[in-house]
């Protein structure tokens, strides 16, 4: 825990020192905005850490000693280059601001503590985030892994590389949730940077941070092993620095935009839409610079080479590898049947999804949303980190947004006004590009709020920022300003309490139980998965084979101390082809059983868990039941679960 904190602080310090140096050396600018410097430092520091990590992973030097050596280098460099007195000059928070931010600080302490006592406990963490990290650890780097969930090999690896570094150095998963908390904090820092740049210093900066921090989907993700907050932070950073470069120019701003997009695309492919939205503005600025002869074609070529290097070194090389990888090899690496749930072309999403996102907070049920054009409720759980929403306040702010833009669009100097407009257009364009993605079952776009959360800071800074700033400027409205501040803090407290208590995956009650039973590996929301049963009874050094498909849970098979060997069975493996050193076979084919009969989210309550059984599950289960070398220790055919133990 101390090591994670020290390394994270060191990476940030190295990045901030590099950002300050680049602005001063390349652009002749002395960056004086501390929150913007922290945002830039996080982007650069993260890019440097990931570049070093990728070098180790591709060289198959991804070992504890090598990771600790890189960490020590960052700590030493960060200690030598840090200048906190200079960086944070002008960042002052009085007693009133401290009390306003106290609920936020208490939430951060809560999720950090909860992460220490709870095991990983959400679908994606158990099915592909942590298995990817563990595979990297076992193989000492990137390899052609045979897996059961195609997301392990086909989706970007940056987030899992961070998790793997923790698993390698800590030899456990105690603080893997802290990565999400770190990017939650950085997202709030970026929000403060936007508010300060758009409207200057004042109470409005603190309130903008609180309003964004109170967003339910962000609160739920702030203490979970999910890559979304990392991607959202990098997306908003790319938008902010791209808008700044479009208006002001500057090599450092362009470099920060490139790094944020490179690291973001290497984290989550959805960030690519942000890159597409930003590209026309970057091209426009380049053309202007060329016409004014402030840059030459040689500079353009150099910038292109730097961008290519950044994308290759910061996690996007896997896209190239996947592109040239033969389809047959991908199929051979992915065992079992895979469910294709993503396509493009649902154009009605352009209006249906925004409508539902804005109305779901007002739904009469915490489990769904009313869909008027279907005259039915659709499954949309409000307190589940995969879905959730932006909260009632955000909907009200969106309704107020046109008025805020109209009344406050002329405030600030010309550069600031243009940056506000350009950043907003970039974000809206990125969302418009992403919305027509067709997900199945229909209505599974309930997951979109966590992908589009980069819009939240912009809406909040457009609305809350100028209104509170106007209140600050009029002494006669001091009491109103105070009431608004208290109301915002109260909104945060209420949302945080609901998220803490009603969180579907890690509620407060679960944390209390974990405190009573230290080291528990129980998953709160589901005790029916086969791998959890195997984890409870298998020996610490046993070998476990996994047979499954999309959304198969495999991570608990490694054990609490990550000492077990885990292999994934190839598609079509028969009982006599299971390696002789395997003591346990875990079968998990739950996806088709849980979702196979559901065509839209309105059918969730009547057709969930009524899908067809996987023929792969049925065939291998029957073979193992008839094989005298194996004995079943757990069977749940209704959701495609089984555990077998070798007995001879």
| Largest sheet features | 5 strands, mixed
Radius of gyration: 25 Å
Strand order, largest beta sheet: 6-5-7-9-8
Assembly state of the chains shown = single chain
Which word captures the global form? Answer: globular
- Report the uncertain regions: 327-341
Distance between the termini: 43 Å
Number of strands: 9
As a percent range, the share of strand residues is 5-15%
The percent range for helix content is 55-70%
Question: What's the number of helices?
Answer: 27
Give the averaged pLDDT, no decimals.
90
Classification by helices and strands: alpha/beta
Task: Set out the fold topology.
Layout (H helix, E strand, L loop, with lengths): L1 H26 L6 H25 L5 H18 L2 H4 L7 H23 L5 H17 L11 H4 L3 H13 L7 H22 L3 H11 L2 H6 L6 H21 L2 H15 L5 H21 L5 H28 L2 H7 L8 E3 L4 H11 L8 E4 L4 E4 L12 H17 L5 H21 L2 E3 L8 H4 L3 H19 L4 H25 L5 H9 L13 H8 L5 E6 L16 E4 L15 E5 L1 H6 L8 H4 L7 H12 L3 E7 L4 E6 L2
Parallel strand pairs: 5-6, 5-7
Antiparallel strand pairs: 1-4, 2-3, 7-9, 8-9
Helix pairs in contact: 1-2, 1-3, 2-3, 2-9, 2-13, 2-15, 5-10, 5-22, 6-8, 9-10, 9-12, 9-21, 10-21, 10-22, 12-13, 12-14, 12-19, 13-14, 13-15, 14-19, 18-21, 19-21
Structure description:
The chain has 648 residues and is α/β, with parallel strands linked by helices. The protein has 27 helices and nine strands. The strands form three sheets. The chain has a five-stranded mixed sheet with strand order 6-5-7-9-8, sandwiched between helices. The chain has a two-stranded antiparallel sheet with strand order 1-4. The chain has a two-stranded antiparallel ribbon with strand order 2-3.
